[in-house]
Amino acid sequence: MGFREIGIQFFQKKEISVSLILMATILTFYSIQPKFLSPTNIEVLLKITPELGIVALGVTILMIGGELDLSVGSVFGFAPLIMAVMLQSGINTWIAFMFTLILCLGIGTAQGIVTVKTGIPSFITTLGGMLIWRGLALVVTGGHPMYFTPSKDFAMVLTGKLYPFVYSQLLIFLALVVLLHFLLERHKFGNWVYAVGGKRDAAEAMGINVARVKVILFALCSLLAGLGGIIQSTRMSQAMPNQGDGLEFDAIAAAVIGGTSLFGGVGTVIGTVLGEFLSRIIENGLIIIRAPSYYFRLYIGIVIIVAVIGNLYIQRRALKLRVRE
Amino acid sequence: MSTPLVEMVNIHKWFGSVHALKGVDFFVNHGEIVGLVGDNGAGKSTLIKILSGLYPPDEGKIFFEGKEVKFRSPKDAIKLGIETVYQDQMIIPYLNVYRNIFLGRELEKRLGPLKVLDVKGMKEKSWKLFHELGLDITSLDVPVQALSGGQRQGVVIARAMYFKTKLLILDEPTNNLSIKEARKVLDMVLGLKKAGISCIFITHNLHHVYPAADRIVILNRGKKIADFRKDQITIDQIEEMIISG
Questions:
Q1: CA-CA distance, A76 to A226, in Å (whole number)?
Q2: Do B104 and A208 touch (CB under 8 A)?
Q3: Size of interface A-B (CB pairs under 8 A)
């Protein structure tokens, strides 16, 4: 392998842009306020990032497969509410948990089937889903928060503090990262996901069942959104009807910042992990340096644009290094 | 000669009032390279779309290895081993080389209870194919969009070779290629022939196919006007026929 190929492979790594921004951001916050890298604050970051990161993982693989899901924020709120209702009626925590996850799979499958069968854009189907599940959440609760009281062992498994810095939800998040990375890179299903999102017609011509791949991705995306919501409710001991409001855009932002293409066929799980950490670090860092919290969305907006321009620039550099005869 | 690999008899096709194919007979023998030549609108692509299962013929019959076949979709044709490549439509631009070759038919190995991609196996087989084809690709890990047009054709041809396609239909494979690259594609097609794969090479540029073809078929305005083994005709005579119709 020559220098040129190594160069192409290096520049093909979409995570470079986000890695650089991440390092610059950490250094900036640290130089303004050294407490930013204090053990306490690092622990806070490791505690709050996973529940939102899990949602972004699902959104990422769905986007690689060429579809969007705007309903994840609503499912993130709806799932723990359903579980809370079941807990209050005295159902065993684990049974309620399993039932809720199956319900989430059903939600994703339904949204996926409607999308592939009717051929309407997933932007529309999941926009509908976003309003439906949020609306149902409001109907179920009348707009009031509910207590979320799972059994102690369940709370320990989902959100327990195992060691300093190490919470259960962090391990769950990392396990999912490894699993999905493996799925994309080392399993034929991953190959199909990239193919379906990259060039649907060619994938179909090669005998790949495009509709089935997409429905599976929708189901997985809703499942992870529900799981993230349940983790957050377990951590806070309550389920709120507006929980996860706006999360769909945070998740898409994390994926895009990490190098996932809005048009499908391109992206990595690792990039999204970095993108998600970047979002949470900006949110947290602004608090630590005592900037008004209103700045958060403003900065994320700037970061999205800078990161995507960075990716594009790097891609152009890579194409200049085209393999030649 | 034994039964042809594929034989199309008296094919007619109308598009509304346009009579696109007017009773064309066409056949391909085992391990034969046929150059299908004709000007724009001569009926080349209509004929090929019928053979690849995209359109049904309005009249006429298709025989594959002596047996009559009716294609309802391209899938039926692919099942028999007829693969059609419309320029680089069969390639996923962002996927790397070996993932493209094995797309949909990935090699797997066992890892405990799991079946995982056999990356090493797919890479080794890809290198071997490229070596046999004389294709010069330096890395299998680059996305296919970083390759040149000729190399992309090579990826498709390697795929046909590995999966034992019986008939590969290449639609204008040398379009937009440099002379050197077009030459490479021809060499690869000859490699296919050595592996026993028949090939239909569609082009409006006679010079692109003449060096590799065993037989040249010329269509003009929906009719077959010539069907010659290469040793029976010179390139100048063929050109004269295309022009005079």
A1: 5
A2: yes
A3: 92
Contacts of B147 in chain A (CB under 8 A): 323
| B211 found inside a domain | yes
Rounded CA separation A212/A218 (Å): 10
Q: What is the ipTM of this complex?
A: 0.81
Taking an 8 Å cut-off on Cβ atoms, the answer to whether B139 and A9 are in contact is yes
User: A228: buried, middle or exposed (CB in 10 Å: 19+, 13-18, 0-12)?
Assistant: buried
Which pTM does this prediction carry?
0.85
Domain membership flag for residue B1: no
Query: Does some domain include residue B170?
Result: yes
Q: Is A206 on the interface with B (CB under 8 A)?
A: yes
- Using the Cβ of B140 and the Cβ atoms of chain A, whether some distance falls under 8 Å is answered with no
Residues A124-153 have pLDDT tens digits of 999 999 999 999 999 988 989 999 999 999
CB A226 within 8 A of CB A247: no
Quote the domain boundaries for residue B18.
Answer: 6-244
Cβ distance of A4 and B104 shorter than 8 Å = no
Query: Could you tell me the CATH number of the domain that includes residue A152?
Result: 1.10.3470
Q: Provide the domain count of chain A.
A: 1
Q: Which of A94, A67, A96, A77 is nearest to A225 (CA)?
A: A77
Q: Which CATH number goes with the domain that contains B56?
A: 3.40.50.300
Instruction: Please give the residue range of the domain that contains residue A101.
Output: 8-320
- Confidence band of A84 (pLDDT split at 50, 70, 90): very high
Strand (E) positions, B29-73? Answer: 33-37, 59-64, 67-69
User: Considering the domain boundaries, does residue A3 fall inside one?
Assistant: no
- Total domain count, chain B: 1
| Nearest-angstrom CA–CA distance, B191 and B170 | 14
Q: Which of A9, A191, A196 to mutate to test the interface with B (most CBs of B within 10 A)?
A: A191
